[in-house]
Amino acid sequence: MYAKLAWRNLRRSLRDYAIYFMTLVFAVAIFYIFNSVPDQPAFLSLSESQRRMARAGVEAMEWVSTVMTGVVALLVFYANRVIVRKRSRELGTYLLLGMDQGRLALLLLAETTAIGAAALGAGLALGVALSQAFGLLVEQVLRVTAAPRGVVYSPRAALWTLLLYGLMFLVVALWQAAAVYRQRLIELITGSRRNEEFPVRSRPLAAGAGLLSAATLGTAYWLADRVSRTTGLDPTDPRVPVGIALGVAGTYLLFLALAGLLTGIRRRARGWLARGLNLFLYRQVTSKINTHALMLATISLMLTFTICAMSTGLGLGSAVRKGIEDSVPFRYMVTSSDPHQEYAGLRALFAAHGVPDEQVVEFVLVYTDLRGADLMLPEDADRLRDDPEAGHAAWLQVRAVAASAYRGLRALKGHPDVPVPADGYLVHARADGHPAATAAVEALARALAAGHRVELAGHTLRPAARQVLTEPFGGGLVGIGPLLVVPDAALETLLAGGETLAERLLVAEPPGAEPDGLAEAAAEWAAAQWLEDGWVSFTSQAETMGTLYLIEGILVFLSFYVGIMFILISATLLALQQVTDVLEHRQRFAVLSKLGCDDAMLSRLIARQVGLYFLTPVLVALLHSGVALVALNRALVREAAYDTVGPAALVTAGIFAAVYGTYYLLSVRSCRSLYRPEAAA
User: Fold this and answer.
1) Please, which residues have CB within 8 angstroms of residue 142's CB and are 6 or more apart in sequence?
2) How far is Cα 21 from Cα 119, in angstroms, rounded to an integer?
3) pLDDT reported for residue 679
4) Which of 219, 265, 530, 574, by CA, is between 20 and 30 Å from 105?
5) Mean pLDDT of the 396-401 span
6) Is 467 exposed, middle or buried (0-12, 13-18, 19+ CB in 10 A)?
7) What subcellular compartments does it reside in (predicted)?
């Protein structure tokens, strides 16, 4: 008999709380998918050095996964608490009919454990199925082509999922059964009528909380704006935690004040409320906001974090990729701190791998005594020296390169030749959209247009071109400060001084496909060069870009994992409250039906009621995240010319709307089926 009773209750629970069960299935599936990354073919195709770096990202994902499991555990704990509270009259009836309290606790334990086991099994099956497609996504993000394999299955991820989620479901089931075992009969009979939060009914108190909320949130927004306009991104800035704390406090105050404020508005909007079912709708929504104010505030903060995390993760990943792509324009680059470094063995290695000598350029970068201001007109130099945000280019030491080497570099990249006469010079500077770089380029261009002459190592040089050259040559050649292109004789004079800091570089651009084994061989050659007081480094464009795509992938995966889970949890909490209220108050809709409301009117009423309830925390979250993202975008544009947060926010909004909208439609459908008059009979 008890088995039949448990089976009947289990089927009814899965029918009434299908959205909650679906979320558990997706949570298990997503956990398995992201923890299966180390066993994906794309990951196994990475080089050994990339795989070592990737392990740090995998460990971060595992740590985040564990934390998110704790968040899901809170969802399961809260959901079971709400479900049992709504069923408390039913459970009390079992006791009245003669069931002892121990068997009631075992019955509830069996039901909760069965739901958890079903969600765990279905989630693992779904995770294994979806991980096949996820492997293709990993290939796209990491930019690798993996060897074809059969069905990918990660025993480690499956075991970790079973242990973590199985333990979580078991702990929650035991706690729930113990809680019911300790409750008295009168508590079970009256449990469904107790509110979870204390509602704010006093209008003066609500108005005071509203004013305090406005002041608190206004201060938090002002601090975000101030921080975004301060030079230098400093996460330890005390204004950051203060602003976050004020934003959290202001959000809770806002929701605690909403119900009382909405009650006051109701008395002044009788004309609109008197039409149709608006008054009924208004009372339903304000009652839910009042009763669940703390939960709605928490959901709003979770959604704010979700939007900001996903937008920042996507935006920073794209920005870092663009920045590093511009900083490694050549296939191979070797740099030595010894200006007399011998590269004959390396040249022979390149030749043995089919790289012609004309595709290799060897040169010296020399640090001069000039500063950026020496290449500018006096008025521009004085102005930039006094500019704390855009003036650092005026103070930086200028590096020089021989004209012959510079022409070879331009030829490697297919840029047009720019001749340099014996008494001429060129200026090459970074132009990446950063305000400081733009200000420096404009100042340098005005000096060149004015024919500004430069004194260098006893040579008086005049501009060989009237514009600043800005082709991307990478941070190793053209950094924040300008690069001065001088005649070969002037560079030799600089080197002859003997005390000038200089570096010898070699860049190579093999034609066609990258030669097999060349990168590994060149790296071994560089590692074998030993300098007593210096260094030799080798950079491969493919290796650097692979590392870059790995970093971008980790940022994207982590932000998506956290973001999707928070959206699922938030939407599930809202849907769960709607469904439980339906089960408790569907008699009200039966009365409306008897009073003459047809199915179309009730359907529209349900859609509007669920929509307003779902929309309330979203509006606050959009306001918070809009302020935060505008401030973050302003700071990143100023500090690093990363103007990618805006487009990433649009992608995030699309994902958010799709997932959140799906839960809204499912909630409306569930509520309509439960609000049917025959269901209430």
Assistant:
1) 42, 43, 46, 546, 549, 550, 553
2) 7
3) 45
4) 574
5) 90
6) middle
7) Cell membrane
Read off the tokens for 194: 């107790």
Does the structure show a pLDDT above 80 at 640?
no
> Which of these, 349, 437, 358, lies nearest to 392 by C-alpha position?
437
Task: Report helix angle 541-594 to 101-142, nearest 10.
Answer: 140
Handedness of CA 454, 459, 465, 467 (dihedral sign): negative
Asked if 115 contacts 10 with a C-beta cutoff of 8 angstroms, the reply is: yes
Are 31 and 68 contacting, i.e. CB atoms less than 8 angstroms apart?
Answer: yes
Quick check: 428 pLDDT over 90? yes
Q: Measuring CA to CA, how many Å separate 276 from each of 271, 597, 607?
A: 11, 10, 15
- Show the CA angle centred on residue 464, arms to residues 460 and 467, nearest 5°: 125
* Nearest partner of 632 among 325, 326, 307, judged by Cα: 307
528 or 585: whose pLDDT is higher? 528
**């242990």: which residue's tokens?**
163
**Any idea which residue has 């053209």 for tokens?**
478
Of 653, 584, 605, the closest CA to residue 16 belongs to: 584
Instruction: Provide the β-strand partners of residue 540.
Output: 332
Q: pLDDT class for 452, splitting at 50, 70, 90?
A: very high
Q: How many CB atoms neighbour CB 120 within 10 A?
A: 19
pTM of the model: 0.72
Q: Return the percentage of the chain with pLDDT > 70, whole number.
A: 78
Where is pLDDT greater, at 315 or 575? 575
Neighbours of 542 (CB within 10 A): 14
Beta strands 454-456; 360-371: pairing state: unpaired
Token pair of 16 as six digits: 């009434």
